[in-house]
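Extended Data, record Nucleotide-binding enzyme
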Amino acid sequence: MSAERFGGLRARIAAEAARLMYEEGVDQYFTAKRMAAKRILGQIDGRRARYRPADLPSNGEIREALLLFAERAEGSQRARRLFALRIVALEALRALAPFSPRLIGSVSTGHIRRGSDIDLHVFPANEEALEQHLRALAWTFDRELVTLQKGGQFREYVHYHVADAAPIELTVYAPRELRLRPRSSTDGKPIVRLGIAAVEALCARDHREAWQRYLETGEVEGMDALLEADEDEPPPGPFDGLLEDGAGADDAPACPEPGEEDDPDQDYDPLPGFEGAA
């Protein structure tokens, strides 16, 4: 089947962007599509080929291409690994219950790949209480403070990277922000945040037999083997795309992209790459 039938250049750029995200750890749609366009178009007469904004795929198109890529590469094991990640997430949500934790991102939507981590939002009244709680749980963690400028304003985001059966990233918000929902750079819709009951319902719906076994035994069959498959693949850095975007002249776009849905000046989304509603 020809690429032209399914979008021509746009589909080819989406497929290459998906490959970059899956195989090379690029975790910003904006960065991946620019790199993909550059690689596919190359240069003509020593000058960069130009493309129209309409040639660039949407974040949603790249996400679907990425999901297809992951399914082809990982087969049936991917669904089993997704369930294992959801159980790790569920147990983390229960452990963090005093801080109104919510699951977001690829583990909630199912758009996982090798190296996917578990992304949680937490809403502590004060950060010290959260740190004390993490220590009481005997969790190994690192704290990261990231300052970003968006819309002419600086904002700091605190992240805790937790070493567990699968890597967990906690993004810290004030309690009042639980009522606010950042918009996804995938489709512009508010990000879906799942609490404990919602994740339990998700497991019961999408993994009926495995969920029933978990309820009966408290274990996930083959969890260690499923999650060890990711250990040889370094997890995508949560800020790689943000920090590298525009860092080198060679990655500059071949032409401006006005009106692109994932404009680099959009509101910061702490889950680059795999956010979005199911």
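Summary. Strands lie at 43-44, 47-48, 102-104, 118-122, 140-150, 153-163, 168-172.
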